[in-house]
Amino acid sequence: MLKSKMKWDFTYSSDKGSNNGLIDELLSQRGIHTEEQKEKFLKPSLSDLHDPFLINGMRKAVNRVKEGIHHGESILVFGDYDADGVSSTALMMECLQSLGAECDFYIPDRFIEGYGPNEDAFRKAHNDGYTLIITVDTGIAAVHEANVARELGIDLIITDHHEVQNELPDAMTILHPKTSVKYPFQELAGVGVAFKFAHALLGEWPRQFLDLVAIGTVADLVPLEDENRVLVSYGLVAVTKTNRPGLKSMKKLNNIDGDVDEEAVGFMIGPRMNAVGRLQDASPAVDLLLTRDEEEAEELAEFVQELNKDRQKIVQEIADEAETMLGASTDDEVIIVAKEGWNPGVLGIVASKLVRKFDRPAIVLAVDKDKGQAKGSARSIDAFDMFENCMEVRDLFIHFGGHSQAAGMTLEDEKISELREALCRLASEKLTPEDYQQSLPITMSLSLKEVTLKQIEFINQLRPFGMANPKPYFHLKNKAKELRLIGSNKNHLKATLEDDGARLDAIAFGQGEAYHSIAPQSEIEFVGQLSINEWNGNRKPQLMVEDLAVKDWQLFDWRGTKHIQKHLPHFHENEAACVSFGQITDSPGGLPLYKFDDYRLTDYRTLLLLDLPETMEDLAGLLSKVSVERLYTVFSLTSDAFMQTLPTRDHFKYFYGMLRKKGSFDLEKDANLLARHKGWQVDSIKFICNVFFDLGFVTIEDGQLRVNSKPEQKDLIESETFQKRQSQIEVEKKLYYSTYKELRAWIDKQLQRPGSEVKEEIGHGL
Predict the structure, then answer these.
(1) What gap in Å lies between CA 611 and CA 584, rounded to an integer?
(2) Rounded to 5, what percent of the chain is helix, strand, coil?
(3) How do beta strands 630-636 and 606-611 pair?
(4) Residues 542 and 560 in one domain
(5) How many separate domains does the chain show?
(6) Does one domain contain both 359 and 479?
(7) Which residue, 476, 508, 580, 676, is the most exposed by fewest CB within 10 angstroms?
(8) How far apart are CA 115 and CA 228, in angstroms?
(9) What is the pLDDT of residues 456-502, one digit of tens each?
């Protein structure tokens, strides 16, 4: 048995049938049933975008901007420092510039000003002559700052998409889908709202901004459905064909060739856009998107690339520190770690790492002793809504905002313990133990024959994948034709699956530790994503494994294996024990060693059977009492009764007749002579003598064998020596010289589990 790391959630209910049936099933799981819905989903169109004027306040905002442009007013675009905020800022700047506006942008310094609009920035804007401020991807929680703007005579237009809090800012107008009852779609990213504003300002779809929309939307992890699906579908094409020198340089540096997909944006471009604002002022990221100078673009792209490398190093250092600090606290319902000197810009990534490692909601805070404050980020598990639960203790925060799975916050450092206690209490009241186990939704179970290039091409019609349209996970169950470790550090697992002519490679990155826990003949269950591996012009399906398991107990056939110590995997404490049926006193690897009848063996799920039992009943008795997940059969031979010839009744009859005539028999001298004369083995002759002695047919004194004159009539089977030899032969035949299939079937029966269908295998070492 090999347990899965995650909780497998089989989500499908219908039969998949043909290839089209698979697509229908996948669409059905996404709530898409009618032909009209299918057409819109599989063939996104810009004509499906909603009217931007359905957003409350849009007409007022458009009129105010056009009025400001007409009068030559200075307009300030106030953005955010993440990829969504950076792309939103660049989009709004280009839109205003195309309309002839006098404009500039401002992004607050994460380390000095914190998140969102702030009073000092607004007062500086007023002093610099700005009379209109447009926020992008921020501002919905800026209640105080809106009052400051009104006091200064600045008109404030807020465009945002973050969760709406209890009080709305008193801005001139707010463009936010979730405050607009008539707007059909409420899950736009910040750059999506900016795009709708640009659409309204320009009077047409602003196709020139689609590449920016794709970057911000994918990076911000909003649901890729409805308008977001349309914008990202067209936006990825725009990124592929982009003429922006900054994006072209970024793609070149990261070897992004050909068609750009959501993974290239989500794992390559987006994180690099984010890295700038995490370590310093985010303005260079905006400049990278806006510049039209190729030389400047190359310099900025290289600068951003280096910042991302620095970011990765800092994240790992803080994550290592946080894990060390946690110690036993990883059992808390909600993990909270805080330390002075941590970089606040990367704490969200660190929190994500902690969530993945410990399956707990996590908050990571940087402490500023001078201010007496702690500032940081939170990430959560599916079952715990971070925004909702933190809002229940909103009074503990100086600043707070975010989503169900991610949030940012500032609080007094002396309230960290109180926050930990409050959130742990809420989690303990609302969550079950199963909620802490990461869930892996499985779209469908497939046989190996069903995994084809055509099938995968059908699946790819659902792209772009993302939130609310996840890349499907498939479940396959097969034996591995080959199982090996790959990679320079041998930390990745590769399984080659074959079944009746069908073949598939399954790659499990970072899961090399499972290699030693899988017996070669075991049926393995894989859950992963299907993709096409292209190499030297060849295309073949492959499975990128997310999780794997062996559901049944496993038999590791080590019969005949020498140097067991070299093959022994690492066992956790109290996981494995060795069993001796005879006089073995040394165990490999320092594992605990017990006699086969020791009651403590029931505490172990992995057993190594070092030698053969005297009888089949000894092993059957042991197996009936234990509950094993893995069984290693070593069964080292001290003698080899099975390979020795058991004397027949004719042998016994001849020897007894010869002894009666001769009168006596010297066990040393005569045994050798008889062996040469008859071609028998000396051991066989001694065996016959011992059987006759057991039965009382002879006496043995000083090495001389003599016939008993009046023996009782007995059968050979009544001899203890004869019985032991027969038992030893049976044990060796069934346990040592049997095939893997035969051995597995017999053990299955003793474990009182149904024998599984197992193909003929060659036992390890035989």
Answers:
(1) 8
(2) 45, 20, 35
(3) parallel
(4) no
(5) 5
(6) no
(7) 676
(8) 25
(9) 999 999 999 999 999 999 999 999 999 999 999 999 999 999 998 89
